[in-house]
Design goal:
The chain is of the alpha+beta class and 251 residues long. The protein is built from eleven helices and five strands; from the N terminus they run ααααββαβαααααββα. The chain folds into two domains: 3-78, no CATH class; 87-249, Glutaredoxin (3-Layer(aba) Sandwich). The chain has helices at 3-28, 34-50, 53-78, 82-86, 112-127, 143-156, 161-169, 177-186, 191-198, 201-216, 237-249; strands spanning 93-95, 101-107, 131-137, 224-227, 230-232. The protein has a five-stranded mixed sheet. The radius of gyration is 26 Å and the shape is elongated.
């Protein structure tokens, strides 16, 4: 548990005890004398000692409440931008382009977690042909991230965004401009056009738009996923599948 979690837990414990005591006191205040009030405090303490699980229950309820508030705040933050998030006209879907539900990933090619999530996203796509998956690049991790993001968008100018996306995630070493260009060559791009597009204002604007959108919806790390109007982080197909199943069951 980190420091902030510890502070929250201690605070929640204090709140739960005070809330329990206040509730107990209010329910009996009309008929209590000062002596009875003192006795009530003793009863509260005795009850907590006898059933300490009440504190755990209160902590759990508090954490659930705080999580729900955070999720609702995140929903409200991204709501004005959902149409842009789900749009696949500029950056095409990487899986199931005809899917009716939409799962979006904001990713960075230099991110190790994104590389680990890549095969998990493939599993999700195979298990859910009705879920369109869009991957939108950002470049948070330095110049090689920037070049790779520009490269995949440049490949998109030749209709090969998906092929370049897959080729770059197949690289199992640190990204460099050289191995990014080799990936571009391996998928049959016109290299003169590719080089020109990588440095073009068109590609730069597309990347800026993707990064600006990520900032607007509060993406502060990658991979970040957006599905069913909610934003979350995930590292496994099973976790993502849970989100999909919940959305489908609510329809």
């Amino acid at each position: 548990m980190n420091k902030n979690s510890g502070i929250i837990s201690v605070f929640a414990l204090i709140v739960s005890i005070l809330a329990f005591a206040m509730c107990f006191w209010k329910c009996n205040a009309k008929n209590q004398t000062e002596t009875q009030t003192a006795n009530s405090s003793e009863l509260v303490a005795a009850a907590l000692l006898e059933k300490p699980e009440m504190v755990i229950d209160a902590l759990n309820a508090y954490e659930i409440q705080q999580r729900a508030k955070a999720e609702e705040a995140a929903r409200e933050q991204i709501k004005p931008y959902l149409e842009q998030v789900y749009d696949d006209q500029v950056i095409p879907a990487i899986f199931n382009p005809e899917g009716k539900m939409v799962l979006v990933e904001f990713f960075d090619f230099s991110c190790g977690y994104c590389h680990r999530l890549y095969p998990e996203m493939q599993k999700v796509a195979q298990a859910n042909p009705d879920v369109k998956i869009i991957a939108k690049p950002v470049a948070f991790l330095g110049p090689n991230s920037l070049y790779a993001a520009q490269a995949v968008l440049a490949a998109g100018e030749q209709g090969k965004y998906v092929e370049m996306y897959n080729a770059l995630f197949a690289i199992n070493e640190q990204l460099t401009q050289e191995n990014v260009d080799k990936a571009a060559e391996s998928i049959g791009l016109n290299m003169d056009k590719y080089k020109a597009d990588v440095a073009s204002d068109v590609v730069s604007q597309k990347l800026n738009d993707s990064q600006s959108l990520a900032q607007k919806i509060g993406v502060d790390g990658v991979p970040t996923l957006v599905f069913n109007g909610t934003k979350f982080n995930a590292g496994s197909a099973d976790f993502i599948q849970t989100k999909i199943d919940e959305a489908k069951s609510a329809q």
